[in-house]
Amino acid sequence: MNVTIYHNPACGTSRNTLAMIRNTGIEPTIIEYVKEPPSREDLIKMIADAGLTVRQALREKDTPYAELGLDDPALTDEQLLQAMLAHPILINRPFVVTPLGTRLSRPSELVLEILPETHKGAFTKEDGEKVLDAEGKRIV
Length: 140
Fold this sequence. Notes:
The protein is of the alpha+beta class. Helices cover about 20% and strands about 15% of the residues.
């Protein structure tokens, strides 16, 4: 299965998502989007395919969001997209694209919705939260 993750290795949620993908036996294509941002077209498609608005795909924390005045509700989607493309750290993470769908994996276990059920046993997030049991089944 072809899986792509738009990843930031400095982000715990992104690291957990990547580890959950690998727990299925899949080695994804990893795009460090801050160094290699998606094209405008790819970003628009990912946002739409994930069922989000442009504003929902915008990251506020640890970004120039406030400095750029991006909290202004009068800003258009086009203006927000331009800011995200100029400052890729504003793109929320991690986006994951698979043949089963696209998700902004926040929280990281949302990625399970678009992965095959081929998990290789238990999975525990970095913070100690158990996500999958020993049989690779989601703990609810």
